[in-house]
Amino acid sequence: IGAALSRGGKTRAVTLAVHQAAIAAKVCSGQHDAVIKMCRELISSGIADAEVHEKLGDALLALERLQEALRAFDQAYRLIAEWQVLSSWRLYQKRQQVRAQVDAKRTGRQGGGRDGAGGGGERARAEQAADQTCSEHGLRGDDYTVLGVSRFSCSRKSLKSAFRKASLKYHPDKYTGAKECAEMHFKRLSSAHDRLLTVCT
């Protein structure tokens, strides 16, 4: 990796793309340790982007290394571009979910691992807080951008039309990609639509 980096930006991009393809192959075959090693090599080389940090977090999460996974997701979230709204939403959800697990484990250890008033109650509260924060969080890239409507001439009619068009693309029953991805996108669109209904006339 180091030799390739010295040849300029274009080579850096090619090097990153090649390694990301190799990482994707390891992800598909469930080789989490190999993914972690490859991602960390890219990070050490200084060319890792948000996707590399997210892949690292996914691999660490699969191995239940929650604290490390959370740090990786945090870094990925910091690196994500402003316009990548759906990616930002996905990463935000991951961070909140892992943080809730970390908090629940910490509480479980403090409470002796009980599921009642100790660990279980705290876990439920942590998950509820994460859900509430998710719904209230203002994503980088606003609701108007997500739905493709004008901030200055938004009407309920144009809003509903835009939502209908966007939701057809990401509806879980029609989306050709991963079901989880479709559900995440559809939820984001629905949330944006519901919020804008209160301000568009």
From TrEMBL:
Record bears the keyword Transmembrane helix: no
Domain J: 142-201
PROSITE patterns the record matches: DNAJ_2, TPR
InterPro entries reported for this sequence: DnaJ_domain (IPR001623), J_dom_sf (IPR036869), SRC_co-chaperone (IPR052758), TPR-like_helical_dom_sf (IPR011990), TPR_rpt (IPR019734)
Annotated segments matching region Disordered: 100-134
Organism annotation: Haptolina ericina
Chain intervals with Gly residues compositional bias: 109-121
Domain of life of the source: Eukaryota
UniProt-recorded name of the protein: J domain-containing protein
Keyword vocabulary terms for this entry: TPR repeat
Residue spans of the TPR repeats: 50-83
